[in-house]
Specification:
This protein is mainly beta. The protein is built from two helices and five strands. Strands 4-3-2-1-5 form a five-stranded antiparallel sheet.
Length: 123
């Protein structure tokens, strides 16, 4: 994964969600989610540049949850923001939604469709 360059408000990025393997080093062992940069600010403590990112949560777009379109907003340092990888989303978009069983559109793909980064042409 490559760190994001030229991050601006409205950029689509990947940010860490949770660590599933704490014994691994670096970012190996983390699950990442798609997010949109909402604001750019400075840390009061050390002056580092911070990015406010809205990202999807587990279960995003799943009607079985009480709030299926819930998102989380959090501040991230630049070293924790990566370029978005569209490989899975592009594969999924080759087939209409009716082709997939419930839940095959992952949270990131649903989030990108809802925010206009991917057009759902096959619907």
């Amino acid at each position: 994964m490559k760190h994001a360059q030229n991050i601006k408000v409205g950029s689509l990025v990947q940010v860490p969600d949770y660590c599933f393997a704490p014994n691994r080093r670096g970012w190996n062992g983390w699950i990442f989610r798609a997010g949109i940069v909402l604001a750019i600010g400075k840390s009061k403590r050390d002056g580092a540049t911070l990015y406010k990112v809205e990202r999807c949560i587990r279960g995003y777009g799943d009607s079985r949850y009480p709030n299926p379109k819930a998102t989380i907003t959090a501040w991230f340092r630049k070293d924790a923001i990566f370029e978005k990888d569209f490989t899975h989303a592009n594969y999924v978009m080759q087939h209409p939604r009716s082709y997939w069983c419930q839940g095959c559109y992952d949270e990131d793909t649903e989030f990108m469709i809802d925010h206009g980064f991917i057009a759902d042409y096959n619907e």
